[in-house]
Amino acid sequence: MKTSSISLRVADFLKSYPPFEYLEEADLFALARGGRVKFHEADEIVYEKGQARGRFVWIIQRGTVNIYRETDTGEELIDVRAEGDLLGGSWTNRDVPYTATARVAQESILYALPSDQFFKRCGAQPQAAAFLKSYFTIKHESDRPFSEVEALELSENAANWLTQTSEVGERAANRLLVAAPDERICDVAKRLAPGLQEALVVVDAEGCPVGVLTEADFSSRVATGEVAIDRPVSEIMARPVLTISPNMTVGEIIMTMIRRRKHHLIVTDNGKTDGRVLGIVGDKTIQAVHGTVPIFLSKEFPLALDINELRRLRDRADELLLRYIEGEAPIEWLTNFIAQIDRMLTEQAIHLAKQKLASHGWVEPKLDWAWVALHSEARKERLLRSSQRTGIVYADPPADFDLVAARQWFGMLANEMGTVFSVCRFPLDFRGRMASNPAWCLSVQEWKENFTRWIQEPIENEIISRTPFFDLRAVTGNRALVTEIKSHIRECIGRNPTFVPLLANDAMANLPPVTLFRDSVLDQAGVRWDTINTKSNALTPLVDIARVFALGLGLEDASFTPDRYRKAAALLPQYAEVFARAVEAFDHALRLQTRVGLSRGDAARLVRPDELTPLEVQRMKRIFHVVAELMDVAVEHFRLSGAQSAGK
């Protein structure tokens, strides 16, 4: 057979697999023409750990190849590669020796392609580069992670604008309009004519912001006759103003507007109210520059008058979330966005519930209280609409307080809230960990007593089922009540040094699979499964180990799992690289689960490998390896060899 015919057949095979599917036909043919076809018998070594890298990268055309690492007890299988998989590459350092051994499991045909041409041509295509970034940063296949400096982002990234600053910043400066506090309303109104500007900043003699004026202020205060047109604008301007720094990203601006429910932000040179005004950013500005943005939801939630309207708005948020997930928007921005959406939903639901209770003659107790989120919502990690896990905490009542009536009111409020969440498609928690359960509607002292008992006697109190309560956050209400409980938890753990190692031991329960092999999952025992459990195989161990380190290190102010790993890395630099990989693994795991869940309309607990994109397959393999690394770190740090499990 002629060489050109062989090259055509190789190129035709390659184009069915990533990263080759992203290359032009001319690139594929050039790679195939410079390569070789090699036959390997079973048990034949393709390359060995410590061997100098040759000038080829291998692609499996037929058969399987096992990847092994050396351990104190012998070889350990860490991956299985099949048709279309790559072998022997290093994305960041082509000179490093092989860090694992590749042995043929059954008779195989491999295509050997020149590595220099392979990486050059793939590096010129953003999608191919993104795939290789994940593929060759899997543990044991390269010595160091992909350098962020070398990262190639997708040029058509749908949510890339969330990290941008320039265009909005320029527009903010170009559209700046200012006035002095003593200028007459009628004079300023001419400058703020319809179509010329959406808002005006009132500044003092030093150019610092003291107020903001919009068309709405003129229509509601002046057009109604409340304030005469010859009065100074200081009488109708809105204050205090909310200021931001000039280098704030679009994503940060949007989140600030949603969180603070402001439609205009003032840009100052130092980001503070005593700084000189540089510009003004409005929600219409961002809408004009970037199209559909979620700021409108902050206006709509407080106007919702019934449950069905709340459900419609929450569904709209999911539509936006899917768009941003598919566009690779930053995961921390996404989690904050949904947390703010659910906060607004909760606040409006409480408002409606209070109105309903009042209409039936029920009076709200004169006690400080807070609505509490538990589990993933407490960590601001709930992107899919998972089970309701909520609670209520109220201030310790005085001795003569009518606590029976107060508990009745809180119970009815919680029942109303449970109904709202159910209509909004948040399932009930099958273990009853909800505010409607009297066991989780308690005073500060009662919550403290619970945690004291759980920490002092974890095995007797089945601590595994209590771990969601160690992630708690006040969604609305008096947040100081929850802060007081968290401080008590930290103090109680300090008095019981065996508690955290015991939790760490239980975090070892969900051993990760070895790898994904064709359309199945290969576990530690060599058994194949049809589906990946995104919770127990990925998210749960990542979350549990992060929580253990947070509790053990006293990281009371860290709840978001990546934040816990980052802060733990600062205190334990010997584990910094593993914790950095854990941050990336969490990002990929949550993003994958959310994309599949939103596409299917369920919780995406079980996912088939064929539902994943090629890039997601490589990311999932990486997650498995990182979880195994984290477990090794936890065993070492907490000295778990003799620890007793609370789950047994």
Description:
This protein is of the alpha+beta class and 648 residues long. The chain folds into 4 domains: 3-150, Sandwich (Jelly Rolls); 160-293, Roll (CBS-domain); 309-494, Beta Polymerase, domain 2 (2-Layer Sandwich); 499-642. The chain contains 21 helices and 23 strands. A hairpin with a 2-residue loop joins strand 4 and strand 5 (74-81). The N and C termini lie far apart (65 Å).
Characteristics:
23 strands; alpha+beta; 4-stranded antiparallel β-sheet; 4 domains; 43% helix; 648 residues; Beta Polymerase, domain 2; Jelly Rolls; CBS-domain; disordered C terminus
Number-wise, the strands total 23
CATH topology of the largest domain: Beta Polymerase, domain 2
Question: Would you tell me the overall average pLDDT?
Answer: 85
Tally of contiguous helical segments: 21
User: What is the structural class?
Assistant: alpha+beta
Q: Under the CATH scheme, which architecture of the largest domain would be assigned?
A: 2-Layer Sandwich
Strand content: 15-25%
* Helicity level: 40-55%
Determine and state the CATH class of the largest domain: Alpha Beta
N-to-C span: 65 Å
Note the overall shape: globular
Outline of this structure?
With 648 residues, the protein is an alpha+beta fold. The strands form seven sheets. It has a four-stranded antiparallel beta sheet with strand order 1-8-3-6. A four-stranded antiparallel beta sheet has the order 2-7-4-5, with no helix packed on it. It has a four-stranded mixed beta sheet with strand order 17-16-15-18, with helices on both faces.
